[in-house]
């Protein structure tokens, strides 16, 4: 009897594992995503906030291909955990390691749901053959070191703290500037950064493409310069703020480095 009970307990432990695997070697997660590793890589596993580069081919259940990065010869890059791709991708890519190839079978609730998207009919289960080409770890963003540096006040109310002066002439209205930046709320919480996207930000100066505080502040910078700007809310996002990250009437701090002037 004891041996029989032990056998039953063992089967109960093994049964969920057997259930998780289909006859074709796919594993089904709690959410309903099915995945199978078709080639094992040797790299790191991505974490939320990391950027990933993925080659993929997307197919319907009837085998019709609706999209592929292979034909464009360029992997698709996105920030993991930022909600910029479908849920099935967020979950599936997070299960992989750099160099892995896998097939993801994504049910409608983890894909595009009841919406028709391009060649994808509503309520479609979609299949992706993916390769995790590269994992770019989340950058460690450090605030500028402003200790011992004087604060300069502009007539509009912006506070400047020059960390590095830079060289050459300041940009003129209408020129395109290339910057790296990180923005902070008054309590020190970071709400945005070009580093998290892995790409500097470009805009045309003085034509209203950015907040007024940026148009004014960056116009005083020189190439290679690094300045912390503390911008009053009237020159930032005003009375409404920019929900959900920026509350109404919020002064903002930006660490900005001017990389280039075009």
Describe the structure.
With 262 residues, the chain is of the alpha+beta class. It has two domains: 24-136, Chitinase A, domain 3 (Roll), CATH 3.10.50.40; 152-261, Roll (Chitinase A, domain 3), CATH 3.10.50.40. It has four helices and 14 strands. The chain has helices at 2-20, 87-94, 194-197, 212-218; strands at residues 27-28, 34-39, 51-60, 65-68, 76-79, 101-106, 126-136, 152-153, 159-164, 176-184, 190-193, 201-204, 226-231, 252-261. The strands form two sheets. Strands 1, 2, 3, 4, 5, 6 and 7 form a seven-stranded antiparallel β-sheet that branches. Strands 8, 9, 10, 11, 12, 13 and 14 form a seven-stranded antiparallel β-sheet that branches. A hairpin with a 5-residue loop joins strand 1 and strand 2 (34-39). The longest helix is centred in the N-terminal third of the chain and has 19 residues, at 2-20. It is elongated, with a radius of gyration of 25 Å. It starts with a helix and ends with a strand.
Q: Give the low-confidence spans.
A: 1-23
Largest sheet: 7 strands, antiparallel
Helix vs. strand class: alpha+beta
Q: How far is it from the N-terminal to the C-terminal residue, by CA?
A: 83 Å
CATH architecture of the largest domain: Roll
Total number of domains: 2
CATH first level of the largest domain: Alpha Beta
Q: Compute the CA-based radius of gyration.
A: 25 Å
CATH topology of the largest domain: Chitinase A, domain 3
What share of the residues lie within helices?
Answer: 10-25%
Instruction: Give the percentage of residues in beta strands.
Output: 25-35%
Order of helices and strands: HEEEEEHEEEEEEHEHEE
Overall strand count = 14
User: pLDDT average, as an integer?
Assistant: 91
